[in-house]
Design goal:
The structure is a single chain. By secondary structure, the protein is α/β, with parallel strands linked by helices. The protein is built from 19 helices and 14 strands. The site of pyridoxal-5'-phosphate has 22 residues, from α8, α14 and α18. Pyridoxal-5'-phosphate (PLP) binds next to α8, α14 and α18.
Length: 466
């Protein structure tokens, strides 16, 4: 793909506020209006937008979504995604994309990734029939759906995050980068990154909100033990958004030596595509395991959505199977009307954050509204652009669970199945309470058990009577 780096472009303030150091780039004093679909409020900001404004207005016609390339050659999913970044990053992102594309077809690289996923991570992860949970959702007449859990919690380091961290670390090595940075919310992506850096002998710096460091102390200790430097971030709400902003600033300043292992399907192109593809192993295994177990496909897939990587990892394989329902569950915090939640797809509006266009929690001036969730990994005001696309075309459904509902689900799975799930995962499990009564007998539901809950025990003890 020919990508020119010479176009000038206007960058929205939300990007500068969140991503660019004021020491290297003066902050832009003007105010930008919130993006409205079809408006000219945000002018083309990525090189691709500049070249083809028509594409920025892509409208997906009914039933045409299957034919769309996701992402297109400009890194967009319909109107979402793109590359809203300063020029200093364009070269690094272009280099990353071309390395990713060439390694995707490189058998040696694939073999190396698969070998590490098998012997170091412990893949494949089981597709587990949750017998007592299934019993719990049986109606008085004995009918109800069958619940299965995709056990990403059994991976080395305890979550799906390791899939992407392994592959990106190997990619960084191929690019000759010896310094790795990453952001983390719940600490799981930080631990996964610190782990692969230890495994491959790479220097590792993890940005983590100071508030998240307090609520995820075990993971901070793990990262340090693994040899990573954990840098506390005190700006904003000292949470995931702020950690991503600082990591992007670092990558702008150290573009030559450093690879940024972004942990979700967010950020500028090619990250949403790359992180999705590195997690797509979850859905591929699920398809194969479903055939083995019941000789068919799942009927419903359920996953929690923060940035959206575990959900996209499960959904991607089934995108074209229109008979498979895709359900993402966001964090409703204290409730959708409380103003204290992280339900971006449910309550957000279109804007630009961290280099991509997507749904965001923002106020009337286009300024980010700070999100809230008990669960650090879901506490993000944006969401991966492909989820915004799936929502708009109606391919996936998005709902939300409150803190209280998630804590109940956390306890329920622990007691019924002997599996302590991550608080993030518990949001997806909580939605079963609403979903299951509506499903017909024998419906096969797969919930992505994205992580284990050891990291959340301190938090859970505070809130649950155990
Ligand atoms: C176990 C677990 N599940 C889910 C998430 C949410 O992230 P994503 O939506 O990218 O899967 C996180 C984030 O760190 C996590 O640790």
């Amino acid at each position: 793909m020919a990508i020119s780096t010479s176009h000038s472009y206007r960058t929205p303030t939300s990007f500068f506020r969140c991503c660019v150091s004021s020491t290297t780039h003066p902050r832009i004093p003007f105010k930008i209006e919130k993006f409205q679909s079809g408006s000219s409020a945000i002018k083309p900001a990525s090189i691709s937008f500049v070249k083809n404004t028509e594409l920025a207005q892509v409208e997906v016609k009914e039933n045409k979504w299957k034919e769309l390339q996701r992402p297109d050659s400009f890194g967009r999913f319909g109107k979402f995604g793109g590359k809203f970044v300063p020029e200093t990053l364009i070269y690094a992102l272009t280099e990353l994309e071309s390395a990713f594309r060439s390694l995707a077809g490189d058998e040696e690289f694939q073999k190396e990734v698969d070998g590490i996923l098998r012997d170091f991570v412990g893949r494949e992860s089981p597709l587990y029939f949750a017998e007592r949970l299934t019993e719990h959702y049986k109606r008085p007449d004995g009918e109800g759906p069958h619940i299965y859990l995709k056990r990403e919690d059994l991976n080395h380091t305890g979550s799906h995050n390791i899939n992407n961290a392994v592959a990106q670390a190997l990619l960084a090595k191929r690019l000759g980068k010896k310094r790795i940075i990453a952001e983390t919310g719940a600490g799981q992506h930080g631990v996964a990154t610190a782990t692969v850096c230890a495994r491959f002998g790479l220097q590792c710096v993890i940005y983590m909100g100071a508030q998240d460091m307090e609520r995820q102390t075990f993971n901070v200790i793990k990262m340090k033990l693994l040899g990573a430097e954990v840098r506390p971030v005190h700006s904003g709400t000292s949470a995931l958004k702020d950690a991503i902003s600082d990591a992007i600033r670092d990558s702008v300043a150290n573009v030559e030596s450093t690879h940024y292992i972004l942990g979700s399907v967010a950020g500028p192109h090619p990250y949403p595509m790359m992180v999705r593809d590195f997690n797509a192993v979850i859905g591929k295994e699920t398809r194969r395991q479903a055939i083995e177990k019941w000789g068919g496909k799942p009927d419903v897939l359920v996953a929690c959505v923060g940035g959206g990587s575990n959900a996209m990892g499960l959904f991607h394989e089934f995108f074209d199977d229109a008979d498979v329902r895709l359900i993402g569950v966001e964090a409703a915090g204290f409730g959708l009307d409380s103003g204290k939640h992280a339900a971006t797809l449910t309550k957000g509006e279109v804007g630009v954050l961290h280099g991509a266009m997507s749904y965001l929690l923002q106020d009337d001036d286009g300024q980010i509204v700070e999100p809230y969730s008990l669960s650090a990994g879901l506490d993000y005001p944006g969401v991966g652009p492909e989820h915004s696309f799936l929502k708009d075309i109606g391919r996936a459904e998005y709902y939300s669970s409150t803190d209280e509902e998630a804590l109940e689900a956390f306890k329920r799975l622990s007691r019924l199945e002997g599996i302590i799930p991550a608080l993030e995962t518990s949001h997806a499990l909580a939605y079963l309470e609403k979903l299951c009564p509506m499903l017909s007998n024998g419906t096969k539901v797969v919930v992505n058990c994205s992580g284990r809950g050891d990291k959340d025990l301190q938090m859970a003890i505070k809130h649950l009577e155990v």
